[in-house]
């Protein structure tokens, strides 16, 4: 990754991957599933190329568990998809009360507060 003067982070290989998985669970299985998903986040973060792996529970719907992982390269992410840990994650996805909502996002650059500054200056 290359950081420019304006705070823009450009991926040096042109791509990074963000995975977002929402699993809807029943109230009776929610705590069990949350513990199982939580047990995977540490080992996932230890994998090469994983920048972050987090488990969230939206306040607006406590029966949804969201797993977000951020990968530095497509190669790192694909290696993760072939891992034993991901096999376990796929099994846990099936424990939801409906099919999971899964999204994979490719990112070529990340922008921080510098983007806010640019946008606000354009409106003046």
What's the helical proportion of residues?
A: 25-40%
Instruction: Please provide the count of β strands.
Output: 7
Q: Rg, please?
A: 17 Å
Main pleated sheet: 4 strands, antiparallel
Query: Low-confidence parts lasting 5 or more residues at pLDDT below 50?
Result: 1-10
Number of helices: 4
What is the structural class?
A: alpha+beta
Side by side, the strands of the main sheet go: 4-5-3-6
Order of helices and strands: EEEHEEHHEEH
Q: Report how far apart the termini are.
A: 32 Å
Q: Per the principal axes of the C-alpha atoms, what is the gross shape?
A: globular
Q: Indicate the mean pLDDT.
A: 87
Strand-residue proportion: 25-35%
Tell me what the structure shows.
With 124 residues, the protein is of the alpha+beta class. The chain is 38% helix and 30% strand. Helix 1 (27-45) packs antiparallel against helix 3.
Brief description of this entry?
This protein has 124 residues and is α+β, with helices and mostly antiparallel strands. Helix content is 38%, strand content 30%. It is built from 4 helices and 7 strands.
Question: Key features?
Answer:
4-stranded antiparallel sheet; 3-stranded antiparallel sheet; 124 residues; alpha+beta
What topology emerges from the helices and strands here?
Blueprint (H helix, E strand, L loop, with lengths): L1 E2 L5 E2 L5 E9 L2 H19 L4 E7 L7 E8 L2 H8 L2 H10 L7 E7 L1 E2 L2 H10 L2
Antiparallel strand pairs: 1-2, 2-7, 3-5, 3-6, 4-5
Helix pairs in contact: 1-3
């Amino acid at each position: 990754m290359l950081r420019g003067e304006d705070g823009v982070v450009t991926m040096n290989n042109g791509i990074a991957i963000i995975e977002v998985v929402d699993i809807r669970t029943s109230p009776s299985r929610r705590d069990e599933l949350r513990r199982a998903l939580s047990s995977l986040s540490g080992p996932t973060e230890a994998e090469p190329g994983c920048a972050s792996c987090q488990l969230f529970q939206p306040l607006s719907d406590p029966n949804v568990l969201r797993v977000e992982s951020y990968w530095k390269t497509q190669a790192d992410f694909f290696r993760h998809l072939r891992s034993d840990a991901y096999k376990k994650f796929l099994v846990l996805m099936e424990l939801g009360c409906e099919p999971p909502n899964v999204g994979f996002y490719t990112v070529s650059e990340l922008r921080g507060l510098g983007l806010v500054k640019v946008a606000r200056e354009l409106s003046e």
